[in-house]
Structures are given as C-alpha cells and as structure tokens.
Write a structure and sequence with these properties.
Elements: H1 2-6, H2 10-13, E1 15-16, H3 29-39, E2 43-47, E3 53-58, H4 59-65, H5 82-85, E4 92-93, H6 99-106, E5 111-115, E6 121-126, H7 127-145
The structure holds ligand 2BA.
Ligand 2BA is lined by residues 15, 19-21, 39-44, 110-111, 124, 126-128.
C-alpha cells in the first residue's frame, strides 16, 4: 500500500482550475466576499490575468481589513482591493514534487496551489482529496488481508 501511495499522481487528485473558485488581485473586497459566500469556501486562490497565483483571500482576512475601532465598517468593502488584503504566502506544489511532499505541505495548509513548470496555476490539491485517497487504499488493504477463520 505504501508504494501505491508514494506513486500517486498529483494531477489525478487535483481539482482542475476550471472548477476552482478564484478572484483577481484587482477585484474589490466586496466582489471577493460575494464569491466566498456564494461558493461556500472559507479561502480561495487569487489569480492574476496571466494565470499566476498571487495569494489567497479568506473571509477572515476581508473582515479584518474592514475592522474599525468599534465595528466592522462594511461601507469600505467596495473601496479596498483584494491585493491589499490577501495573504501572499501561498503553499504551492508542482506535479513532479510527488504525493509525499504534498501530504507534508497539507499538514499546515487546507489546500495546495498546483503549478505547471512555467509557474502557471493549474488547480488545487485539497486535504479532503488526499485523505479520501489514503482512506480508499487503507480500506482495500484491510479487506484483502482479512481472512475469516473457519470453525
Ligand atoms: P474550506 O472552505 O475551509 O472547507 C473545508 C472543508 O469543508 C472542505 O475541505 C470540504 O470538505 C468542505 N467544504 C467546504 N465548502 C464546500 C463546498 N462548497 N462544497 C463542498 N465541500 C465543501 P477540502 O475539500 O479539503 O478543501 C480545503 C480547502 O480548499 C477549502 O477550505 C477551501 O479553502 C479550498 N477549496 C476547496 N475546493 C475549492 C474550490 N473548488 N475552489 C476554491 N477553493 C477550494
């Protein structure tokens, strides 16, 4: 089972860019909040026009950036841009880095941004896709090693 897991393909487990909710660094925070709420995710990638990932934006970062002294100043949502509030420290991986490296990075990141060799964003690798795959292998292994005792 271990060999099988080590050899797993990041591309096979990846959520393709076409199915990833994302925003542009120049978008307003109001637009980003709309995308986050509509998609249901707490954080999503920020992609520039050339398809390079520039950061991640979350509901928490947005609320933090419009936090006044005594209240959340929602009226400022339309004035600020995603690039001013995003977290630029993105956890990235390339397909040839391998599954074990992806698993290691996923300990501290709920999703990894997958890039091709030109540094272009091609999708995300989520914790749930990795855990699902590991769970599937463990179940298969447990069933194949189960030997009922004859009485
Ligand atoms: P969260 O948004 O905090 O979501 C945590 C987990 O909750 C997800 O884990 C998933 O199991 C579930 N979940 C949340 N919103 C969902 C939705 N709209 N549909 C289905 N399941 C949902 P993961 O699947 O491991 O995702 C980890 C993180 O990756 C997510 O954290 C989110 O930040 C990001 N993510 C996942 N799929 C995405 C997508 N298609 N577009 C953009 N970001 C995505």
């Amino acid at each position: 089972m271990l060999q099988e897991l080590i050899g797993l393909s990041i591309l096979d487990l990846m959520t393709d860019v076409n199915r990833v909710a994302c925003v542009d660094p120049e978008n307003s925070l109001e637009h980003a909040l709309l995308v986050l709420v509509k998609s249901g995710y707490s954080a999503i990638p920020v992609l520039d026009r050339s398809g390079i990932v520039q950061g991640t934006i979350s509901k928490t970062l947005i609320l933090d950036s419009i936090l006044g002294l005594e209240r959340i100043e929602f009226e400022h949502l339309g004035e600020q841009k995603v690039k001013d509030a995003m977290n630029p420290n993105v956890t990235k991986i390339r397909p040839h880095d391998g599954f074990v490296r992806a698993l290691e990075l996923a300990i501290n990141a709920p999703f990894l941004c997958v890039e091709d060799d030109d540094g272009r964003f091609i999708g995300i690798l989520t914790r749930s896709s990795m855990l699902n795959r590991i769970h599937r292998s463990m179940k298969t292994e447990m069933h194949s090693s189960y030997r009922p005792t004859s009485s």
